[in-house]
Amino acid sequence: MRPFVVNVSDLIGHSGSRRSVDLDGPLPLTLDLASVSAVRANVTLESASDEIVARGTMTFLTTLRCNRCLVEWEEELSASFLEVFGSEESPIARDGSIDLEQTVRDEASLAIPLVPLCRPDCKGLCPTCGSDLNTDPCSGHADESTSPFGALRHLLEP
Q1: 84 is in which domain, residue-wise?
Q2: Measured distance CA(56)–CA(82) in Å, rounded
Q3: Does some domain include residue 118?
Q4: Does residue 117 belong to any structural domain of this protein?
């Protein structure tokens, strides 16, 4: 059974009727620096002539990876949504059900930070050795004159 499909046949044609439902289930969503596993949503469904208005709030556990130092952590995020069903873009199925999965997926994607940071002052990784500068400050590196690009170093120095 799909956790974000709700039967609304009792609301169709009864303008002003409403009810609330709680939904929770898996939402496999993976982005570059984040992933979502499960979502909990509270949705109020309201009938408006031949349409169903779904208003909801959701919370979801997200695994984020810092854009600077690549440390991973879990964080609970939240988002709200509003979707109107009954049009070509968001139809009501013949059996009287609506599918909120795409709405939940879209809003979860938008709630995730584009550039997640483990903390605002994250120092990132050393570009030379890759050590985490937050936990292991780099003391410098040996002369790199043996590098094939060592001859170009004088072009970068004043």
Answers
A1: 5-111
A2: 7
A3: no
A4: no
Tell me the pLDDT tens digit for each residue of 18-73: 999 999 999 989 999 999 989 999 999 999 988 999 999 999 999 999 999 999 99
139-to-126, 128, 129, 136, 142 alpha-carbon distances in Å: 10, 11, 11, 9, 10
Those residues whose C-beta lies under 8 Å from the C-beta of residue 41, and which sit 6 or more positions away, are 4, 22, 23, 24, 56, 57, 58, 59, 100, 104
> What integer pLDDT is reported at residue 53 of this predicted model?
96
Same domain, 82 and 151: no
Residues facing 114 on adjacent strands: none
* Rounded alpha-carbon distances, angstroms, from residue 153 to 129, 130, 156, 158: 18, 20, 6, 10
- Are residues 103 and 127 both part of a single domain? no
- How many Cα atoms occupy the beta-carbon half-sphere of 92 within 13 Å? 21
Q: Copy the structure tokens of residue 123.
A: 């120092």
What is the rounded CA–CA span in Å between residue 32 and residue 67? Answer: 10
